[in-house]
Write a structure and sequence with these properties.
Pfam families: RVT_1. This is Reverse transcriptase domain-containing protein. InterPro entries: DNA/RNA_pol_sf, Retrovirus_Pol_polyprotein, Rev_trsase/Diguanyl_cyclase, RT_dom. By secondary structure, the chain is an alpha+beta fold. The protein folds into two domains: 90 residues, no CATH class; 47 residues, no CATH class. It contains five helices and seven strands. The strands form three sheets. A three-stranded antiparallel sheet has the order 5-6-7. The protein has a two-stranded antiparallel ribbon with strand order 1-2. Strands 3-4 form a two-stranded antiparallel ribbon. The protein starts with 9 loop residues before the first strand and ends in a 5-residue tail after the last helix.
């Protein structure tokens, strides 16, 4: 956390004042701030991408993957971050970030599609919005999805 921001996040307890040294959970812009740090951390490293606190390292061969992974670990060390190895998954052929990513590309997570199929029919505007939000998450996968959503949008449920 930036030194100038620390006084803004001082908390008062029965044991006195405490000034935070790290960005706490619950601060509204925290995910965006953290994402900026992670993006800076992996900047210039080939075969890497970040999704929140997940860093994805790719390689055409195991040797290429390991070399890139070592570069990421060095950068993590240089930035003063730590890695919990028990939270890491190495040499994966497929990852799940709300959708499945593998060598062939991206596809919807079958569990999420099943959840859409099992959802009860919406009975009010709130339930319809929730359903459409879930369907919209997969908008890039659904051919002509805009045609499905058009009747719901024309009912002005979003106004």
């Amino acid at each position: 956390m930036d030194e100038d921001s620390r006084p803004l996040l001082t908390i008062n307890t029965h044991r006195g004042l405490y000034r935070l040294n790290r960005l706490p959970f619950g601060v509204k812009p925290a995910p965006g701030i953290f994402q900026q740090y992670i993006d800076a951390l992996i900047a210039g490293l080939d075969g890497t991408a970040a999704y929140l606190d997940d860093i994805i390292v790719t390689g055409r061969t195991v040797d290429e993957h390991n070399a890139r992974l070592n570069a990421v670990f060095q950068r993590i060390h240089d930035y003063g971050f730590h890695v919990r190895l028990e939270k890491c998954a190495f040499l994966q052929t497929e990852i799940n970030l709300g959708f499945v990513i593998n060598a062939e590309g991206r596809r919807p997570d079958p569990k999420k599609i099943e959840a859409i199929h099992k959802m009860p029919h919406p009975k009010d505007v709130s339930q319809l919005r929730a359903f459409l939000g879930l369907v919209n998450f997969f908008g890039t996968f659904g051919k002509d999805l805009h045609n499905f959503r058009a009747p719901q949008r024309s009912n002005r449920i979003y106004s």
